[in-house]
Amino acid sequence: MNIAIFSISRDRLPYTKDCFAALKEKAGHPYMHMVFDNGSEDGTKEWLYQQNPFSIVSVAQNMGISGPSNVCVNRLLHVVPDGLIIKMDNDCMIQTPGILAEFARIYSECKEAERWVLSPRVEGINKQPRRVRQHTLAGHEIGVTPIVGGLFHVVPAPVYRHFMADGGYDETLPKGWGQDDQFCDWLARNGYAKGYVEDLVVEHYETTDGQAKRWPDYFTRKWREEKERP
Question: Which domains does the chain have, with CATH numbers?
Answer without folding.
Answer: 3-225 (3.90.550.10)
